[in-house]
Amino acid sequence: MGIRNLILVIYTVECAQFVAHEIGRGEQDVHVLGFPGCYDNAYAIRLMLAMGRHPNVGAVLAVGLGCEYTQPERIAEAIRASGRPADAFFIQDAGGTQKSIQRGKESIQSLKAQADKVARRAPMVAKDLVIGCECGGSDGTSGLAGNPVVGRYFDRLVEAGGTAVFEETVEQIGLRNILVERGANTQASAELAAAYDKAESYCRSVRQWSASPGNFAGGLTTIEEKSLGAFAKSGTQPIQGVIKVAQEPPHAGLWLMDSVPDPHFMQFGYTNPNDSEGIMDLISAGCHIVLFVTGRGSVIGSPVAPLIKITGNAETFRRMEDDMDFDASPVLTGEQSLEACADALHQRVVEVASGSPSKPEAMGHREYFIPYKHQSIPSLQAGCHA
Amino acid sequence: MKLMESCSARAFVVSSSDNVATLLQDVEAGVEIHLIGEVGAARHVVARESISASHKVALVRIPPGEPILKYGSRIGHATRQIAAGEWVHLHNCASDVDERSNTLDVRSGAPQDTRGAYE
To answer: What is the CATH number of the domain that holds B55?
Structure first.
């Protein structure tokens, strides 16, 4: 069950990017994403398929140029196998830019009609929801107000039988013991320890720790400090285990997503390249909504699942109110209890889940980022069948 | 937001064992900062310099090499002696793992080691 009924246009190489976006331009409930590389990548294909089969998506159009390795028709076949209508074509076959845009627009009209025919309104409760959380542009308030409020909300969501997913293992530096203690069972603790060790050694090997100039200017001094604040978004519930990108949580509860590359003959570069990448990863796990905590302020959104922007910095909320959905700063000043603030956040989530657009969603923000990456498949399969 | 009223300057202490607190407003040197949250022995600390909101102030004297504690956990170590009331940041506190952060500009966080790439 989803909270939106979108048509997703997926392009399979950078050369098809312009045409894909032109197909979606001016269309209601049509989102666009794609992969820039001509050479294919299993990780990116799995991620795009997870987006196409997301509960918020009703149909998919795959568009390629015609030369690239990634095959639009295979994407459409995989989407059809999930019971959704899908179409695919190559721009070279359609006869170039204008004819492809025309062909694509006709296709999405037909897909919309088919998707609407099978769509049914159904009641949803907390236990049907999968909610993700990511933080970006963090400052000294993020770990004291924004993330703790999400943590308290996650505690409640999990108590109500729902599913919560948090990520950024590269922002859990120094927290190995705390992570292991939070495991729901021995297996979960072992998975958490392995994910931590991989993240720390990856950061060491690429010499990149996930902290940006804005974080430092905002009062965060070390990756360890940022990590303790980032981890506050996980709340206090036991962690059921670790999932990888494009993998749905096997059952309800709180889950940690590992988006760090696995060892491979290609070293795919930096982890956590930007906020949009992490948000895409959370959505690929089936998150209906992603909560985004920012102290400094951010103006991104996301395709497929709405992004709800939360700040614990009163000044940022005032300065960027058009972009911010939720002000968690009253928790810091003592004007509001954590409990009351988590209540208010719950209300906002319910509104957005019921169809009211979040601020970035209403403004048309649909940023996405799909890099080349390698994550090992055995773990993915083990998780799916667990 | 500049607060001239010393009584309204506040800083948040996450855990009673912490030796730093996070400022909720910008403060000037000489301003008495009222501590809130999980306050330990000290209830107030006087700012020795101007410090921006969301940045940290030392609650006690911290000798070089000693841990900086926030959330009741070690977030790094002092790289020189830090007096109570001093701003704690990249110039006097270092991560135990990240070697690049202490080369960044202390106010803006902008990198200094890749300047050559812009030339």
So the answer is: 2.30.130.110
Residue of B nearest to A225 (CA): B75
Query: Can you tell me whether residue A264 is helix, strand or coil?
Result: coil
In the chain, the amino acid numbered A26 is: G
Which CATH number is associated with domain A6-118?
A: 3.40.50.2300
Which ipTM value was assigned to this complex?
0.91
Choose the closest CB to A223 out of B55, B70, B97: B97
φ, ψ for residue A11, nearest 5 deg: -105, 150
Q: Do A228 and B104 touch (CB under 8 A)?
A: no
Query: Looking at chain B, how many residues does it have?
Result: 119
Of B22, B96, B104, Cβ closest to residue A219: B22
Chain segment A107-156, per-residue pLDDT in tens: 999 999 999 998 888 999 999 999 999 999 999 999 999 999 999 999 99
Inter-chain CB proximity A211 and B98 less than 8 Å: yes
What is the residue extent of each domain of chain A? 6-118, 126-385
Contact yes or no for A144 and B55 at CB 8 A: no
Task: Evaluate whether A154 touches A164 at the Cβ level (below 8 Å).
Answer: yes
CA dihedral (A21, A24, A25, A26) in degrees, to 10, reads -170
Nearest to A315 among B1, B56, B111 (CB): B1
C-beta of residue A369 within 8 angstroms of C-beta of residue A48: no
